[in-house]
Amino acid sequence: MSPPGAVPVEVRGLVKEYGQLRAVDGVDITINEGDVYGYLGPNGAGKTTSLRMMLGLITPTAGTVRLFGRNPIETVHALEGVAGFVEAPTFYPYMTGRRNLELLAAFDGAGASERIDEALHTVELADRAGDRVGGYSHGMRQRLGIAGALLRSPKLLLLDEPATGLDPAGMRDMRLLIRRLADHGMTVVLSSHLLAEVEELCNRVAIVRSGRIVYEGLISELKRGAGAVYRLATTDDERAIAICRAQPGISEVRIEHGHICFTADEPAVAELSQALVEAGALIHALAPQTVTLEDLFFSLTEGTAAVTPDGPLAEVAQ
Amino acid sequence: MSPGVLTVYRWELRKLRYQKRTYLGLGAAVIVPILFVIATHFRHRGPEDVPFGSYISRSGLAIPLVILLFGAIWMFPLITALVAGDIFASEDHNGTLKTILTRSLERWQIFAGKALTAATYGIAAILLSGTVAVIAGCIQSGFNPLQSLSGTVVSAPKALGLVYTSLLVYLIPILSIVCIGLLLSTITRNSAAAVVGTLMFSLLIQLIGILPGLTGLQPYLLSTQFNAWQGLLRTPIDWAPIIRAAWVCALYGVPALAAACLVFLRRDVAGG
Predict the structure, then answer these.
(1) Domain ranges in chain B?
(2) Which residues on A lie below 8 Å from B106 (Cβ)?
(3) Pairs across A and B, CB distance < 8 A
(4) What is the distance of C-alpha A182 from the center of its chain?
(5) Which tens digit of pLDDT belongs to each residue from A299-313?
(6) What is the pTM of this model?
(7) What is the ipTM of this complex?
(8) B272 — pLDDT class (breaks 50, 70, 90)
(9) Which one of A135, B45, B140, B194 is most buried, by most CB atoms within 10 A?
């Protein structure tokens, strides 16, 4: 039994060192019930190592992991209600898909074997369950991995790059499957390189760089913190740039692909448009640019931008 | 019912059924005695320079005993190592360790289930080989009384009982080989290295036994314990080599098993 009120994932000061290398450096994460949580970072940022520590596969050098209030390093019972996989899900290639699931169900106990058919049906593998896993495609193994996780009737699902290596249709199916599971109230932690997928599925993210978390929170807040970027074209761009630079509330004025770009809030843009007209620089186009998670991800992980003075991106640049 | 060591044990046995190496080892345990009997049939005599070698044309029950002597050199250590050396390393190779360690079983339960499976395979191989040797030997030379190492004649039924008791005594050093195979399997995480390493260890111990100046070590070498069963074939039974085999093999096996367990319990599963 998990302690009442315990959150699905609570990570505090997590560190993992391999000799001189600090793969995970002081990670703090709290994942609440019902969250679909994206865990993002470039290769080698320490995402998989963190997930392995969350699943009790690796002992942290320092810090704690608590899943529903229990430490997976101390007892495998901490994984009750928890399932998932790190890197690609792996199975015994010489056994059939169904036989692999039977093995996992036997290792789970608690009636897991009764859920095999349902899990195979959910991931749409029922018709290939009698084939050896050695002959499965990558996508089928990924889906079998999800089926293996579902046998545990998880309340928390940890998935590491579940769509990696899938074709577009497989990626769409995986996305739909995760969405469906999340809609059923499952808390999902999703490590992924596919930022559009994370943006579509997740409500909260942690972005890691070199083992450290550089942003943790709601995606909407991250975008808000980044400020709005506008694109401007006028009859006199030289004069327009000078006006933009002089205008209060306008920052990051630059030329990109032949257009003037700047960051501003809406009232400042209204004042700017008036100032441009008064100065005789007539506006051809003035349009907000959508900031994607991908833009923010690269800004954070490559440390190239500090868009707002007080937002999270500014912290990165410091 | 909660899963436990027996759950792992049952599934490990089931997994062995799907693997070629299982049949390779058991096949060798079956074929070698048959080939030996065929060879002695055409030679019309057995190897004269080993105990019971000269009796194999008179009693089929001498054949399993001669097989035990020859098998100790490399065959039975290799058959045993095929599974013991592979049972943890193959999980690393397949990347499946993370799959089974994130279920509802403690690591020690998985270790115990796998260790029991490796021991079971070694035991099965020896008993199977012994049984095939008894059957093939009796077809070739008949179910006849056997002359013991003390020169007394033992009736065929009693000799059969002694053959099977000898097989059981032979299992003592075999279980030590299992433990060493398990240790190498957990440490190397490489099936081939662990299997070959176990065999090399066995051969190295035999080599030490024949080096000049080291004969004093012979009673404490693992290879010597493969001959402990011969105490049963004396009149009266000589228990001293059997008792020594028990504690000498424990000295080899228990630390290896404990070390393997510790390595498995404490290791980081950063790859498979």
Answers:
(1) 5-266
(2) 75-76
(3) 91
(4) 14
(5) 777 764 433 334 444
(6) 0.85
(7) 0.88
(8) low
(9) B194
